[in-house]
């Protein structure tokens, strides 16, 4: 859905594509600290990234938090259309750095973080710091959804625009 963004992704041609689920959990076969979910451009992330590229005026000049950024495509898109500053947040943020470099995104407009912004007490570091919060595909698990939904509501009450 976003041919204007180049991404390093896991495909059937990659050895880790064929590893059993959980192979990375125990320091096993993948070499990653957790299963590499960032290596796929999930449908919700694709739709969100397309929306950003098509409606750039909504994001231009704004500070953006891409929560659960995965491969970083939405963060990259926000920077491509002129967001003033983007924080890409994910449990394994390395893919975002690789993909940003692949797309020529350099400089201090992109910050990549593996911190848990949703945990209790973390609201002070995110509330009013970002004008827009992007959430692509984070509602895949009831445990994450249970933490994420109240956090989204707190952010929205504080005046942050939440796009998901």
Any overview of this molecule?
Keywords: Methyltransferase, Transferase. InterPro entries: Ribosomal_L11_MeTrfase_PrmA, SAM-dependent_MTases_sf. The chain is 32% helix and 13% strand. It has one domain: Rossmann fold (3-Layer(aba) Sandwich). It is an alpha/beta fold. The radius of gyration is 16 Å and the shape is globular. The protein contains six helices and five strands, in the order ααβαβαβαβαβ. A five-stranded parallel β-sheet has the order 3-2-1-4-5, sandwiched between helices.
Q: How do you describe this structure in short?
A:
This protein is 32% helix and 13% strand.
Structure keywords:
single chain; 164 residues; alpha/beta; Rossmann fold; five-stranded parallel sheet; 6 helices; 13% strand; globular
Helix content: 25-40%
Fourth CATH level, the homologous superfamily? Vaccinia Virus protein VP39
Question: Strand sequence of the main sheet, in spatial order?
Answer: 3-2-1-4-5
User: What are the low-pLDDT stretches, counting only 5+ consecutive residues below 50?
Assistant: 26-30
- Note the run of SSEs as H and E: HHEHEHEHEHE
How many structural domains can be distinguished in the coordinates? 1
Percent range for β-strand residues? 5-15%
- Please give the radius of gyration in angstroms: 16 Å
- Can you identify the CATH class? Alpha Beta
The strand count comes to 5
Family: Belongs to the methyltransferase superfamily. ETFBKMT family.
Keywords: Methyltransferase, Transferase
GO cellular component, one term: mitochondrial matrix
Organism: Anopheles maculatus
């Amino acid at each position: 859905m976003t041919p204007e963004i180049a991404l390093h992704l896991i495909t059937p041609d990659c050895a880790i594509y064929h590893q059993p689920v959980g192979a990375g959990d125990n320091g096993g076969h993948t070499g990653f600290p957790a299963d590499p979910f960032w290596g796929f451009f999930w449908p919700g992330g694709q739709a969100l990234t397309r929306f950003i590229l098509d409606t750039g005026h909504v994001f231009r000049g704004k500070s953006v938090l891409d929560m659960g950024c995965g491969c970083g495509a939405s963060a990259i898109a926000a920077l491509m259309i002129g967001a003033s500053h983007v924080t890409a947040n994910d449990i394994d943020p390395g893919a975002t750095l690789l993909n940003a470099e692949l797309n020529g995104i350099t400089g201090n407009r992109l910050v990549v973080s593996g911190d848990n912004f949703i945990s209790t007490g973390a609201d002070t570091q995110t509330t009013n710091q970002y004008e827009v919060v992007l959430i692509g595909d984070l509602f895949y698990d009831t445990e994450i959804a249970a933490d994420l939904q109240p956090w989204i509501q707190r952010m929205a009450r504080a005046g942050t625009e939440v796009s998901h």
